[in-house]
Amino acid sequence: MPPRPLLEFAASRVRTLQPSPTLAVTERVRALRRSGVEVIDLASGDPDFPTPVHIRQAATAAIEAGDTHYVTAGGLPELRAAIAAKLASDNGVQVDPDGEVLVTAGGKAALFEAMQALVEPGTEVLILEPSWVSFAPMVQLSGGTPVPVRLSADDGFRLTAERLAAAISPRTRILLVNSPNNPTGRVFDEAEWKVVREAAVAWDLLIFSDEIYEKILFDGRAHHSPASFPELAGRTLTFNGFSKAYAMTGWRLGYVAGPRALLSQIAKVHGHSATCVPGFTQRGAVAALNGPQTPIAEMVAAWDRRRRIAVPLLEQIPGVRCPLPEGAFYLFADVRGAGASSLELANRIVEQAHVAVMPGTAFGEAGEGFLRIALTTPDPQLREALERIRRCLQG
Q1: What are the backbone angles phi and psi of residue 127, rounded to the nearest 5°?
Q2: Which has more pLDDT, 359 or 33?
């Protein structure tokens, strides 16, 4: 009997899964750079600022003190207490640090472990598109069915009761929300939160709330955690981390907080996969939450400045329109008038202009006709990148 092709040994749910488009663009940037091409990366969601010094010092001191062994699986008690205190003071969310907070290896890991614990074949998860590239694959890897709720650019990608109701079925169990949103930069308003509250109660849904960009807000906008609404407190999991607000992407530190009955199940997946998060990185996270918060304000001020630099430059390009983002550090530029698909334009820009951007289709069908542009590069490079894009699209 001839040997079977090795790919047949791979699980079908993985074989049919598309690789992360964000990582694919990152690899293309690295390949071009290795060949000597100077590429400006506006695709990556990695802040261009160093982790604040007091956070680095706390982690370094922990390493020097020998904190390099296994620690409590759910997270250091000090960190879980700091997270609970932060949720209470910043978000109006009350959780018990002993059993209702779980520290994970990044916010992505928190979401993945929750999907593994709470999603099974037949489970439908509503995902508001445009959406972060990993939401739907996480559902698929858990055996569930991601159901897109396609929002429209024509009304600013706002969530309406009609769009949500059209996607709900008797198999719907979870609604995944992300505000401030990656990639659109939208921040939910009161009317949208009302839609979420009413749908969750009427259809008995769990809410998965990805709040990783909560600190990055502009023009006086406010962040709301759904778990702070009384009718949602007992049915919401709050996902967050340290990557964006504290420039700690490489530290891989996140958490999930919510009802004990749900956290106890997620903790099983965590224990059998990650075991625990390194203690010395958790010491840095304690310093991040309990230490000075001024570095966040300084980074947000820079992203605010950059969005105001970038939007007028983009809108000088024929066929391009770009609203100011309300939160997060991305522009979602409307290129529907540029005469090509978002993927064609993104490929042209990286190959000809040597600037990496993300095609809108990476974020679902609702993202077609858009390019995501990250503001995570210094001002001079940002200006140069936008000038290259202008020459490329006008040429």
Answers
A1: -125, 120
A2: 359
249-266 pLDDT, tens digit each: 999 999 999 999 999 999
% pLDDT > 90, the chain: 90
At 13, the pLDDT band (50, 70, 90 cuts) reads confident
Residue 219 and residue 222: Cα distance in Å, rounded? 9
The stretches of 87-245 forming alpha helices (DSSP H) are 107-118, 135-141, 161-167, 190-203
DSSP 143: T
What is the DSSP-derived secondary structure letter of residue 327?
B
pLDDT of residue 4: 83
**Read out DSSP for 170-217?**
TTEEEEEEESS-TTT-----HHHHHHHHHHHHHHT-EEEEE-TTTT-B
Residues constituting the chain: 395
CA nearest neighbour of 103 among 119, 79, 68: 79
Amino acid letter at 343? L
List strands edge to edge, sheet with 358-359: 330-334, 370-374, 358-359
Q: Model's pTM, two decimal places?
A: 0.95
CA distance 293 to 253: 18
CB 147 within 8 A of CB 126: yes
Say which DSSP state 229 is in: S
Helices (H) and strands (E) in the chain, counts: 13, 12
Kindly state the DSSP code that residue 52 receives in the 8-state scheme.
P
Q: What Cα–Cα distance (Å) separates residue 63 from each residue in 12, 69, 228, 277, 382?
A: 42, 10, 37, 14, 36
Confidence at residue 233, expressed as pLDDT on a 0 to 100 scale: 97
The DSSP element (H or E) to which 273 belongs, if any, is helix 260-273
Would you call the peptide bond into 180 cis, given omega within 30 degrees of 0 as the criterion?
yes
Contact status, residue 256 vs residue 104, Cβ threshold 8 Å: yes
pLDDT bracket for residue 12 (50, 70, 90): confident
What's the CA gap between 8 and 10, in Å, rounded? 5
Give 339: exposed, middle or buried? Use CB within 10 Å, 0-12, 13-18, 19+. Answer: exposed
